[in-house]
Sequence to fold (240 residues):
Amino acid sequence: MTPLDQPISRRRISLLIVALVLPILFIGCGGETRVSPPLIDETLFVPNYVLDLNSKLYHWDHLPVRIAFDLPTNWYELFPEDPTLHVRAANEWNQPGKQALTVVVPITSQHDVRVEFVSENGLEDGRQGLTEYTHDTTGRMLSATIKVALYTAQGRKLSAQDLQATIAHEIGHGIGIGGHSPYAEDLMYPTLFMGNPQFATQRDLNTAMTAYPSYFTTRAIVPESRAPIGPVGVERDIIY
Ligand SMILES: [Zn+2]
Fold:
């Protein structure tokens, strides 16, 4: 069975994240400066898949994370029936009555996560979404750029629903989830089932909230150190 013969609900698209780790250079004589990463407590919001991330749960030093979309000029022609799908994708990470994790800001204003769209058929290795981000050794996010392909490797335009799921998944990486969920129903599962609606589950949201505990719980949290950041090198690591 060739990929094109497969029923649409079983066809999967792959997503990729690339983490660029910028280690901190500690300069000083005498005393050793050590920056402690914030305590990650996987018991705060359950269920979650924090432990499955193998410590790749990062955080920005503020909320909400500012998401800016660099929409293609023909966006409204591409998705005339649903031109705000990208805003809904960002808002999937927000829960009523709780601190927002994301906010959509104009591309011209200061932002944390930039979302770009490419008109090619898939990205490298036929992937649909890619997030490149940098963080320091305390796990603090410094930058994030998301690329989303508007067409599949087979040249088919993504449906509004599949595109929304792809954007929302990549934004999950952009706000700090540096790995994937092992549960197929979660948005942060590494592949998306095309044609099936897929949204952030409570498990996705709990995992994200764990990266920002002070915003979501009154339980005592060890404060994060505020040492200066001095990136000195780049390391590339790829997770599927
Ligand atoms: Zn992913």
The chain is about 15% helix and 25% strand. Confidence is low (pLDDT under 50) at residues 1-10, 22-35, 232-240. The beta strands are 12-21, 65-70, 102-105, 113-121, 129-135, 141-151, 191-193, 235-239.
